[in-house]
Amino acid sequence: MPDLKPILESLIFVSDTPLSLDRMCVLLEEYDRLDIRSALMELTADYRQRGGAIYLAEVAGGYQFRTLPEYADYLKRLTRTKAPRFSQSALETLAIVAYRQPITRAEVEYLRGVDCGGVLKTCLEKRLIRILGKKDIPGKPLIYGTTKEFLELFSLKDLASLPTLKEIQDLGDHSFDDGQQELPLEMEERGEGPDEEPSDR
Fold it and tell me: Helices (DSSP H) in 101-162: which residue ranges?
């Protein structure tokens, strides 16, 4: 049979979204799962050792080719797109949902101390969070969690890849909004968050 690495490279290259190992196994049913996983590891190492501008990243439960951040300014000239910008309230709300999911609107508002209905609606529209169901308490409030689009946007392999409070604090003045907005620091240490990643929508 043909070499697996160039086949996987081609599939990942043309895919619009991160391609999961499970999906690759379905597409390449004539190959063994262990062989596919091994070829993926080799392909990842090949790109890392190559030292170019492109690397193979494991993100949002799949694999995706990405460019190094230092070349972003040049790529903007081609695509003429702007990096996503987030208000302080949006970043805080996203952080709370990410670390405390599944979580209700009331719980988010308790932690933030302000109304979050508009921010939650915007995050839903941008597919960064989703409705997981209803909490089994009086009133049956909706519960929220993050999506695979959230993981992809922030280059996270899974929810376990979220930084701890100490790691966030170590970022110092690092910003996600041209130096104007910083990640909220009032989150508790990871470990009280979800035990597993929510499934895709």
Answer: 105-112, 117-125, 148-153
